[in-house]
Amino acid sequence: MWGRGGERRAPRVASPSAGMGEFKVHRVRFFNYVPSGIRCVAYNNQSNRLAVSRTDGTVEIYNLSANYFQEKFFPGHESRATEALCWANGQRLFSAGLNGEIIEYDLQALNIKYAMDAFGGPIWSMAASPSGSQLLVGCEDGSVKLFQITPDKIQFERNFDRQKSRILSLSWHPAGTHIAAGSIDYISVFDVKSGSAIHKMLVDRQYMGVSKRKCIVWGVAFLSDGTVISADSAGKVQFWDSATGTLVKNHLIADADVQSIAVSDQEDSFVVGTAEGTVFHFQLVSVTSNSSEKQWVRTKPFQHHTHDVRAVAHSPIALISGGTDTHLVIRPLMEKVEVKNYDAALRKITFPHRRLVSCAKKKQLLLFQFAHHLELWRLGSTVATGKNGDTLPLSKNADHLLHLKTKGPENIICSCISPCGSWIAYSTASRFFLYRLNYEHDNINLQRVSKMPAFLRSALQILFSEDSAKLFVASNQGSLHVIRLLEGSFKHLHTFQPQSGTVESMCLLAVSPDGNWLAASGTSAGVHVYNVKQLKLHCTVPAYNFPVTALAIAPNTNNLVIAHSDQQVFEYSIPDKQYTQWSRTIQKQGFHHLWLQRDTPITHISFHPKRPMHILLHDAYMFCIIDKSLPLPNDKTLLYNPLPPTNESDIIRRRTAHAFKISKKYKPLLFMDLLDERTLVAVERPLDDIIAQLPPPIKKKKFGT
Amino acid sequence: MVEEESLRVVRCGGSELNFRRAVFSVDSKYVFCVSGDFIKVYSTATEECVHILQGHRNLVTGIQLNPRNHLQLYSCSFDGTIKLWDYIDGILIKTFIVGCKLHALFALACEDSVFVIINKEKPDVFQLVSVKLPKSSSQEIEAKELSFVLDYINQSPKCIAFGNEGEYVAAVRDFYLSVYFFKKKTTSRFTLSSSRNKKHAKNNFTCVSCHPKEDCIATGHRDGKIRLWRNFDDEKKYTYTCLHWHHDLVMDLAFSVTGSSLLSGGRESVLVEWREAAEKNKEFLPRLGATIEHISVSPAGDLFCTSHSDNKLIIIHRNLEASAVIQGLVKDRNIFTGLMIDPRTKALVLNGKPGHLQFYSLQSDKQLYNLDIIQQEYINDYGLIQIELTKAAFGCYGNWLATVEQRQEKETELELQMKLWTYNKKTQGFVLNTKVNMPHEDHITALCFCNAEKSENPTLVTTSKDGHFKVWILTDDSDIYKKAVGWTCDFVGSYHKYQATNCCFSEDGSLLAVSFEEIVTIWDSETWELKCTFCQRAGKIRHLCFGRLTCSKYLLGATENGILCCWNLLSCALEWSAKLNMRVLEPDPNSENIAAISQSSTGSDLFVFRPSEPRPLYIQKNISREEVQWGVFVPRDVPESFTSEAYQWLNRSQFYFLTKSQSLLTFSTQSPEEKLTPTSKQLLAEETLPTTPFYFILGKHRQQQQDDKLNEALEDELVQLPLTENIPAISELLHTPAHVLPSASFLCSMFINSLLLSKETKSAEEIPDDVSMEEEKESVDSDEENNFTEQVQDTNNTDLGKDIIHQLSKSEEKELRKFRKVDYSWITAL
Questions:
Q1: Residue A138 CB contacts under 8 Å (≥ 6 apart), including other chains
Q2: Interface predicted TM-score (ipTM)
Q3: Which of A380, A673, B325, B496 could pair covalently with A6 via S-S, beta carbons 3.0-4.6 A apart?
């Protein structure tokens, strides 16, 4: 049943009483997508953003103020294994990796500003000074290098005393006078002024009485009172006095490596992650209520990971952890959360908040985007019919039509297949590819459209018009290119330049089915609507506090539906240049509280061609049809109404019916769209399948097994 | 002679020692534990019971050292009083009358009041209140000034703990922990997610303990977790950490004195020491035998004590080595074997801890030893079907012991094993001789030895549900390696495929009676011929026994339908029958008497009768409210001489019986206080004596007395042993400060004299050689005097005896004065 095949089903997606028919659903489980493991996380207190780097070199930026929406990402690169990530000087993001380069990212244009070789071999660690003016990297050759951060670049300043082995972890004293560097078997304390090591603190190799070969100090943290906290491969968290270079306290917490450490800004709590997947929280508590003496106490363990926790971060209200099992887990600290809202719940982010699947409706094709290749599948079909809820047998299995590998080491940023199925476009960080597909019986002929213009180098988003005659490309300079596609060739029609002064890139595109309107949205500013016929900016939807997660333009009415990361949905009439009456009503009344507490952002919106009152949208855990003709639910009504028993009368059903018809049958849902009036396609990616493809976790003896 | 009061049913020892946490004295020399209505003081070094503090009229529910005077002990009881004891001397100092049932007691150093748990209104609502103890010199004081502290708490004292020298009190119940701060007068409450959430279904709190130095509360939970709470003075910022090793509920927790380690225990029977409260840093003391119910820590920090569900205290050294075991009567399991008497030790024998037979001394209320029958490691787990020791019997004056063990997992899978143990004189214990696998096809219903004096060959009979009875005899099993004996089956008998239910040998061993459901068959034990059958058609035979001595021609059988039949073996006819719903039918081995206990709706009644006549000798109605399961006659070492006809049956044996709730009861005419021997006091005196040369002489002196004691009657014991403190010469010698004592040379004669005075004439010969003849002569006079008084004393009761001691001391004083005169003249001569 889970095999490679598009199962056809005829489930009742929503209450049929509203005159909504039943759908046949292609339940696709052959999208073999495995996210990369998380290597580093860096929390920026000023902007409340979180930078996450993955093992394939991808760097993602999450906006913690906007319901942890992944608002930006930098595509990975095969040779750039990120080992360290840090924020400096407010908004500047640096990463360093095993290729020995320090990279700064441009957060506006969403590309790499520059890469600079540190000349110390692979870089294992990096730390920005508390003042933000200096950057420190620890290298394979045992050197600690200090860089000066200038407004537009970084500049090498000097080397510290070279150590015998690689520097795996670095931490600044909050005053910026000393640094602690974790190496193999010892921790060094440097004086920043002189650059000389003033203490060398040897870490015990003993592990549960057995002498291990090496003790790797995976993480250090320097506290303002001079205490150095170290986390090492023998499962210890140790407290050192940096003034005397002596061990103060030892906590043996794991049978495996303790791989990461992060301290809160107040220095009253810190968090460590272990290779067993456990995250331990340590807190500074007073010994007795009437004394000022305080001690560090290990408090709660959290087991949200199955694999190594490679990186942890400590935001003022939450513990953030990520590791090999690819989940980013945000565990709020209950004592810091004032009101019970979105922040008070545990969040687990597994899938990217962007689309990896595109669909050619007419030909029933699905294009899957992987890091380094694309896959094209044709859906299976069935001749059988069945009752509601039946699983129908396939008469024809799904076909894997195409496996398109990228050239070069760069990851694919975005991809798209045209609605007619005869064009495929994708882009990496430096190149744009367009292919023409010819179907001859069962054979496919793939032809690359060569001689792409120079301005089409890298795209953040690609979209074909409904008639597949036009291609819209959002480039990373903020401009939008409109290209007319001809048989085997193309013609550049126009480029919408960004408004003067902004360089913000457009990440989301939507085109109206009649091809007249193009909506484009960036990460923060409002949605721009362009008139494609007249090739000019039509209007700009007023900016909203939260980033846009999905866009779509309804057929006939040309209403633009916008979903934001705070789960709000707006409907904006493009011809009238104002919000529609329905949108105003729902804003006035407010969304259901459970709707606002949902976990993941809405990633796709579509419309039913025959039912103009319906809006179809989905996030990772639910599929929803909003019926604008029905009354809106208030907080007292049941949002997730279970399917009413069929024997109940229509009156009761109608009474309980409201505008939101939600199905949670398919999850985790990566993509869902309407193929035709009566057919849906749902692309699922069960978590168990992902875990099955990960390396085995550290085996732990479980009691009773 | 002993005054004959009415016969009463009394509890005879075997009370729970594990009802509450044991308490150590400050110097760790003694450990106190509650035991029924008493408090027992044990020596931690010797495991001996040093004192029994008696005075409460109901179950003692809490004990605690007086924090202001560590030589005193507070106790509380269901009788509504708090008593203060001097435990060194075993004296009750004060009684505070509170009035309501007290469930637990806590005493704090900084308060002049103690805390108790009471329940006032509803039966399940318990409150922690503080009781102000008024200062008064009188013995009995009313303490009615109660002030309320916490409501709706758990009644167990394990669920209350005081922390930081009484700054706060933590109480747990169900799913929440409440902490009351005395200074701020505020309560913080922390609730764990309850059973509605499946993952946290077993989150219930089970016990609580407070860190002695830090603000840290440890709580135990039903799922085996231990939580360490900190920052609990802030309801928002509180935090806790988890320690998880136990797989079943945490029964008790205790911090060490310095707080550096935490001890926990539970059903796993493993004491876990968590060092520095770290999950990875723990030490274990495994195989403690039974569920750990309580853990306590000595104030000196050198000893721990665990109380176990098998009525045992284990004293554990700081380095986790068990140093002493104080074992009471094991009571937490079903008794299948019934009550037996080991003919050698006269100990009561019954099922003990799993797979063991326990030998329990009724006299000293102490377990003598455990005999491991099943000889397999006991695995404590729910739902596991264990091997049960179901039957046991002694034969041939304690030379042989037969045991039967069984395990039945399914209807068709029965594992049976019979073991025969021989008494080894060298090792003074039972040694396995023969193991018989599947001696029968089905459950063994009874086994008995032929205990006739003349029988040269030991014989054992087993009956089984498979319809057979088998006769096992001891045969020569020697081979080339060694001479040996073993048991083999000699004869298999059956009767019309009926299930064999009971068997019994006649007193002389010539006849064997085997009951087959409703029919009793009589077999000749020489030829194994069926002699005759009796059938009354009155239901299956439940008990069967032959009469003894003059009544040996009678056979008694009790049926399930409540008929007691007595057949005459000579006439082969029913002599008499009576309607009696019998539970226990037990013959007295020393007389013709047979005790029967019947069960009625109101309780159990005792009937004592002789088979020769259907009229009972003695009836005691309502000996116990619950069902009596087993009974046994224990032969007395010294026969009593009850003159009253009704009590004559108790002259040669004492009758013990065990109820369903496993209380061991007996009949007594004496008050319980009298029953106990005063040995405890002597032991104490011995301990307070310094080990000087005097001590050794004294020690010898006592030993002699004890030797004498053995030859003398029990009643005399009280008088015969004048306590060393009561001899003024000695007490003067020991208690006067050294710098005011006269020189040793003339103290010596005085001392020797004092020893002689209290002796009989014959002991004069045993005086050490270095005593001069002169002194001996002097002592002879007094000896005569003494002899006389002793005779008087023999014919008098105990009260008179005390007077005599007093007289003795007077005569001694006279002697002393005489010596003083001599001494003075001697000094002037110098």
A1: A123, A124, A125, A126, A144, A166, A167, A168, A169, A170, A181
A2: 0.81
A3: A380
Q: Which residues of B touch A252 (CB under 8 A)?
A: 278, 280-281
Residues within 8 A of A (CB atoms), B 220-239 only: 228, 230-231, 233, 236-239
For A287, the closest of B214, B241, B281 (CB atoms) is B214
Residues counted in chain B: 830
Cα–Cα distances in Å, from B504 out to B335, B493, B513? 21, 14, 5
For residue B822, the surrounding DSSP H or E stretch is helix B798-829
Structure-block tokens of residue A191 = 């004086």
- Kindly report, residue by residue over A404-455, the tens digit of the pLDDT: 999 889 999 999 999 998 899 999 988 899 999 888 877 888 888 887 888 8
Domain count of the fold of chain B: 1
Sequence-ordered list of residues with C-beta below 8 angstroms from that of A399, at least 6 positions apart, any chain: A377, A378, A380
Judge: A704–B247 Cβ closer than 8 Å, yes or no: yes
Q: Does any domain span residue B546? A: yes
Q: Which of B210, B223, B230 to mutate to test the interface with A (most CBs of A within 10 A)?
A: B230
Q: Indicate yes or no: CB of A298 within 8 angstroms of CB of B213.
A: no
pLDDT of B673: 44
Chain B residue numbers touching A253 (CB-CB < 8 A): 278-280
Tell me which of A23-27, A190-194, B780-784 is least confident: B780-784
Whether chain A has a CB inside 8 Å of the CB on B258: the answer is no
Nearest residue, CB atoms, B247 vs list A255, A290, A703: A703
Please check whether residue B739 lies inside any domain of the structure. no
Closest CB to A288: pick one of B215, B228, B238.
B215
Q: What is the pLDDT of residue A328?
A: 94
- Look at B239 and A335 and tell me if their CB atoms are within 8 Å: yes
Comparing CB atoms, the residue among B167, B230, B278 nearest residue A285 is B230
CB contact under 8 A, B241 and A289: no
B481: its two tokens: 């390696």
Give the start-end residues of each E strand in B204-351. Answer: 205-210, 217-221, 225-230, 239-244, 250-255, 261-266, 271-275, 282-285, 292-297, 303-308, 312-317, 322-327, 340-341, 348-351
pLDDT tens readout for residues A289-319: 778 889 999 888 899 999 999 999 999 989 9
Answer whether A298 sits within 8 Å of B240, measured CB to CB: no
Domain-located, residue B535: yes
Which CATH number goes with the domain that contains B517?
2.130.10.10
Among B39, B145, B129, B124, CA closest to B90: B39
A41, A84 Cβ separation under 8 angstroms: no
Does the distance separating the beta carbons of A235 and B280 come in below 8 Å? Answer: yes
Q: Is B143 helix (H, G, I), strand (E, B) or coil?
A: coil
The whole domain housing B597 covers 380-622
Per-run averaged pLDDT (10 residues), chain B, 830 residues = 60 80 93 89 90 87 91 91 90 89 88 85 84 86 87 90 89 90 89 68 89 92 91 84 90 93 92 88 88 93 92 92 88 81 89 86 83 82 82 88 90 89 90 91 90 76 92 86 86 90 88 90 89 84 88 89 88 87 87 88 87 86 85 85 78 86 78 43 45 57 54 44 57 70 76 64 46 43 43 42 51 66 55
Residue A650's pLDDT is: 61
Instruction: Count contacts between A and B (CB, < 8 Å).
Output: 55
- B230:A288 CB<8 A: no
Of A534, A529, A535, A532, nearest in space to A553 by CA: A529
Query: Could A285 and B231 be called an inter-chain contact, meaning their C-beta atoms sit closer than 8 Å?
Result: yes
- d(CA B796, CA B798) in angstroms, rounded, equals 7
What domains can you pick out in chain A, each with its CATH number?
19-32+544-699 (no CATH), 38-270 (2.130.10.10), 271-349 (no CATH), 354-384+391-520 (2.130.10.10)
- Structural domain includes residue B194: no
